[in-house]
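#struct-help
A.M.: can someone run this one for me? Single chain, 254 residues.
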Amino acid sequence: MVVEWIFLFFVVIVAFSSIKIIDQFERSVKFRLGKYVGTLEPGLNFVIPMLERIVTVDIRLQTIDIPPQQVITKDNVPVQVNGVIYFKVSDPAVAVIKIQSYTYAISQYAQTALKDVVGGMTFDELLAERDEIGKQIEELVDRETKDWGMEVEVIKMQDIDIPEELKRIMSRQAAAEREKRANITKSEGDKLAAVNLAAAARTMAESPGAMQLRTLQSIDGLGPTPSNTVIMFPIDVVEALQTFSSWVNSGKKK
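D.P.: on it. Structure tokens below:
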């Protein structure tokens, strides 16, 4: 009787240990006596104890940081860049069988690709084309990792760290560029104001009434302050004085 109970207990233990529940976001690679025999889908699965084992793989989108890398750009500027990889396992069997650690492998390859791409660009291109750099790294890594049972979704560059001396130089250059644009804007405004003043002067010269109207506007702008003393001459008197002055000057020349 005792033997029967022991046997029954052993059967129950074996039965429970053979039951494997796989979640929806997982796939399990099954090996029998060390040989790959299939990939288990989500749900209830059975594994023969001691003869079969499984390796479970998460097939959700995963994120890996690319550690900061010291790189020399094409124009010999030292920079430190880092990034992030978004990828997922597309073929669990290949990822488990061909690669010892697929997360470590893709991280190392991404670091190498990052150095290659950034090292082939100038510093200005690095600052202006961060998205393009990410795409180039993504193409390199994705082309290699397809044979590893993985699929790269996107690779993004995060930070670009440059030496402090270069930061100060860039700051002075930006300030000089802003001052240059301000001077250009001011000169264009002065030029436009001069053109408008010349046009107004021609209009007032051609129309005495416009000159009188401008005079009245100037007087009105002085305000009612008692200290302001305004002496007005009729336009006719001013024109007569100008004519007389021109006649006197012409007589002297003769």
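A.M.: thanks! The CA atoms of residues 35 and 180 lie 72 Å apart.
D.P.: also worth noting: Strands lie at 19-22, 26-32, 35-40, 43-46, 52-58, 62-72, 78-89, 150-161.
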